[in-house]
């Protein structure tokens, strides 16, 4: 019996890398989709995603470059005139790093890729600490997008959208990834810099705290390693 294939949205970060290993643990052959959309650290993210594809011998590595999210703007990740804010882990405000409706854009491309490759499943590594600030990371969004997939693909197409960590914390993801042997030295989360990581943006803060909570040391280089909690 042949292994089922799954498209995994691979950003180059730790969550999506863990999603890759989770997909493989569930018996799927991973097809990587990585998108460069003009984000500040796109070169480093691409480097990490490509290295991970080689590490796991991915069935395919599709790299899509698109400029429309930069042209639209509205995010500190894509607009150089907007500063990336320092971490505030207690804030309930939508952060400036939110890219308007990004996940819908990425999932649309991933759905096309999954349908074209006859992949049965689509994985995304979004999680609960994301949806506290990013509206397109909420469980309700993924439930709604599953309906979009169901009605917008061929009648015979069946693609299951999986967000396995959607109710998890970053610490939960780190613990699971360490258990699965995810090579986190091949991943990148910093919103500001491409080497070393700044250590003070939201992405760095959540990541550093996750590794501490998991009783491990984050293997990538940081300019600073502050404690946030």
From TrEMBL:
**Reactions this protein catalyses:** 7-carboxy-7-carbaguanine + NH4(+) + 2 ATP = 7-cyano-7-carbaguanine + 2 AMP + 2 diphosphate + 2 H(+)
> What does the record give under GO molecular function?
ATP binding; ligase activity, forming carbon-nitrogen bonds; zinc ion binding
Q: What is this protein called?
A: 7-cyano-7-deazaguanine synthase
Q: Where does ATP bind?
A: 10-20
Tell me the organism's taxonomic lineage: Archaea, Methanobacteriati, Methanobacteriota, Stenosarchaea group, Halobacteria
Q: Which residues bind Zn(2+)?
A: 190, 198, 201, 204
Q: Could you confirm whether the keyword Nucleotide-binding appears in this record? A: yes
Per its Swiss-Prot or TrEMBL entry, what cofactor is needed? Zn(2+)
Domain of life, per lineage = Archaea
UniProt keyword annotation of ATP-binding present:
yes
State what this protein does: Catalyzes the ATP-dependent conversion of 7-carboxy-7-deazaguanine (CDG) to 7-cyano-7-deazaguanine (preQ(0)).
Question: How are cofactors bound according to the entry's free-text note?
Answer: Binds 1 zinc ion per subunit.
According to its UniProt record, which protein family does this protein belong to? Answer: Belongs to the QueC family.
Query: What keywords would UniProt list here?
Result: ATP-binding, Ligase, Metal-binding, Nucleotide-binding, Zinc
This protein's pathway reads:
Purine metabolism; 7-cyano-7-deazaguanine biosynthesis
Enzymatic class? ligase
Q: Which SUPFAM superfamilies match?
A: Adenine nucleotide alpha hydrolases-like
Question: E.C. number, please?
Answer: 6.3.4.20
Q: Which gene encodes it?
A: queC
Quote the InterPro entries the UniProt record gives: QueC (IPR018317), Rossmann-like_a/b/a_fold (IPR014729)
């Amino acid at each position: 019996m042949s292994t089922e294939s799954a498209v995994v949205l691979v950003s180059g970060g730790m969550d999506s890398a863990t999603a890759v290993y989770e997909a493989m643990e569930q018996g799927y052959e991973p097809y990587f989709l990585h998108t460069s959309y003009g984000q500040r650290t796109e070169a480093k993210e691409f480097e990490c995603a490509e290295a991970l594809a080689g590490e796991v011998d991915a069935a395919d590595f599709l790299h899509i470059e698109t400029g429309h999210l930069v042209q639209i703007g509205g995010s500190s990740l894509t607009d150089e005139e907007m500063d990336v804010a320092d971490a505030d882990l207690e804030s309930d405000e939508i952060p400036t790093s939110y890219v308007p409706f990004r996940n819908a854009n990425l999932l649309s491309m991933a759905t096309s890729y999954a349908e074209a490759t006859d992949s049965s499943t689509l994985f995304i590594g979004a999680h609960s600490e994301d949806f506290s600030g990013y509206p397109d990371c909420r469980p309700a969004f993924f439930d709604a997008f599953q309906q979009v997939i169901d009605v917008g693909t061929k009648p015979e197409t069946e693609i299951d959208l999986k967000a396995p960590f959607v109710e998890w914390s970053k610490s939960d993801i780190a613990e699971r990834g360490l258990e699965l042997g995810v090579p986190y030295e091949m991943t990148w989360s910093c919103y500001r810099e491409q080497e070393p990581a700044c250590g003070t943006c939201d992405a760095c803060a959540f990541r550093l705290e996750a590794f501490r909570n998991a009783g491990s040391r984050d293997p990538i280089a940081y300019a600073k390693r502050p404690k946030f909690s």
